[in-house]
Amino acid sequence: xxxxxxxxxxxxxxxxxxxxxxxxxxxxxxxxxIIGAGVAGLRxxxxxxxxxxxxxxxxxxxxxxxxxxxxQGGIASVIGGDDSFAxxxxxTLTTGCSINDREIVEQVVKDGxxxxxxxxxxxxxxxxKQDGSISITLExxxxxxxxxxxxxxxxxxxxxxxxxxxxxxxxxxxIIENYYTIDIVTDDDGKCLGAIGKTHKGxxxxxxxxxxxxATGGAGRLYRETTNPEVATADGxxxxxxxxxxxxxxxxMQFHPTTLYIAGASRALITETLRGEGAILxxxxxxxxxxxxxxxxxLASRDxxxxxxxxxxxxxxxxxxxxDIRHFDKDHFAKRFPLISEIVTSFDIDISKDLIPVRPSAxxxxxxxxxDRLGRxxxxxxxxxxxxxxxxxxxxxxxxxxxxxxxxxxxxIAGRTATGQSDPNGASLKKFRCDIPQSDRSRLDTVDVxxxxxxxxxxxxxxxxxxxxxxxxxxxxxxWQRYVLDKVFDSPAxxxxxxxxxxCQMMAKAAxxxxxxxxxxxxxxxxxxxxxxxxxxxxxA
Length: 541
Ligand code: SIN
Fold this sequence. Notes:
It contains 15 helices and 23 strands. The chain has about 550 residues and is an alpha/beta fold. Among the domains are: about 260-360, Succinate dehydrogenase/fumarate reductase flavoprotein, catalytic domain (Flavocytochrome C3, Chain A, domain 1), CATH 3.90.700.10; about 440-540, Fumarate reductase/succinate dehydrogenase flavoprotein-like, C-terminal domain (Methane Monooxygenase Hydroxylase, Chain G, domain 1, Up-down Bundle). α3 crosses α4, α12 runs antiparallel to α13 and α13 runs antiparallel to α14. The longest helix is centred in the last third of the chain and has 22 residues, at about 490-515. It is globular. Succinic acid (SIN) binds near residues 269, 272, 401 and 403.
């Protein structure tokens, strides 16, 4: 296919964050190394192990620390009623604003029902209707109810648990938790040989692997306000960029309209399926405002609802709006949305009387490591799947609940391709040395840098973007990079800071380059979509 993408110059990045000397580093060998244990990494591990190869599956913290585990709403799939593949494909393409890869969309949608069935067989407790069929609900942008949910609003946990149980049935999968991956290691030809990381005991270790799959998840923690857990610090994107992988669509960060906004509460997601089932957005003056912004009101796409909320906050000079579910049956609510019920109750909110304060926050990184339809990156022996990858499914805007589906589909594909293309000469002991002079970081407070960075991203590279703040963001990040990226750290806090600065710079640069509005990328100074120039991707190549 003709490549008409816009190319931006990759930044000069030091190849590795730490010096590497195999003579002094503990080493491990495997056939397939999978970095990340959300839905995509878990599904990839099952597929790879099924072919008989040895798999090492790494989790940055515990298996419960992932965006997958926190997913509430559900998984989109054509399951019942008068829904059809054509309709799910069309909704995905319409929401994606003309830059999805149609072939990928068709594949993901068509694989959906089979993968949901497989999850059921593996023990995922999807909620059922009285007749025993899977219960489905609605989210914004879907023209049919097709969101399957489990344990009420604990869908991610139910899916992850089923996958983890399946993974544990394989003797040839080694799960390693609390392992921080610092970099993938490449040879002189740029071929991936595995990765270097820090074990839970604080030891540096190289894992030599015939194939490596990056499934490191999201990047919400780049923003002050986010639904994402602490682990979502964009590590995989920065690791890939340092190794020379092509990253694309970095301007497309999806903001979720409704995140709980209570002082002292973590910014918990308040699932879109609540709006799918009738929740109303009200401003601080009790006005239900969404119909002023879009005929689909509460069920308009997320970018539209997020911007509407922001505008209404500005108009009413308020820090938040409210979700009104006072008309919901309280008992039904507690059963259907047990997680949210528990959260709001812990803050003394009685849903039959009180409104739930919410505002938008960073939720899902649409851009990522460019892969082909087999999950391959441009680096030999390196694959990517899940949120860290850019497969072309989402285009410029992700349809709610399409991401768990994508993780399953491309986890399976990446696991299959990686084992099918395994390099017989890989995963052997190699001499490898890369020196970096030690640096003085005695005056550096990385927590302070990160707080400033996350606020800067929220202000300048947030829901509405403008040329001047985007340029200013790049200048400020460049300045911070000058004295952070040249340092050598020995713990995740420092490496995360370096990774986040690297990825934020790319996001600001891509957002500046796209002088139009498309999907989740809204330019206040270029509010129209410009198909003559931008009906394509922006790549760092
Ligand atoms: C939600 O439950 O609102 C989030 C689902 C998603 O982001 O796909």
